[in-house]
Design goal:
Helix 1 crosses helix 3. It is elongated and about 75 Å long. The chain has helices at residues 2-16, 32-46, 48-80. The chain has one domain. It contains three helices and no strands. The longest helix is centred in the last third of the chain and has 33 residues, at 48-80. 6% of the residues are buried. By secondary structure, it is mainly alpha-helical. It is 72% helix and 0% strand.
Length: 88
């Protein structure tokens, strides 16, 4: 997920800051294949290492905190649940 979020955030920088760069930038009228190649180069050069740390951090946090958080949510659900009993 870290890579997906990073790539989505990078689209704004790529279009505005690197516009006109012949090997990395975006230009109106580029073909889809050329656009993907240029964005791929931009992403590898500028963000891949940072986004990899983010993705690894996400995995570590899920592995370490997943079970305790789910247990806490289960206890909270048990405390907050209620039953409506009709009086006959």
């Amino acid at each position: 997920m870290g890579w997906v979020v990073g790539a989505l955030w990078d689209i704004q920088d790529w279009v505005t800051i690197y516009r006109g760069n012949p090997t990395l930038g975006w230009e109106p009228g580029m073909s889809a294949a050329t656009t993907l190649v240029h964005f791929g180069r931009f992403y590898v050069v500028t963000s891949l290492a940072y986004d990899t740390f983010r993705a690894v951090g996400n995995v570590i946090m899920v592995l370490l905190l997943g079970a305790p958080v789910l247990a806490a949510l289960s206890r909270l659900q048990a405390r907050l649940s209620f039953e409506i009993v009709s009086q006959t």
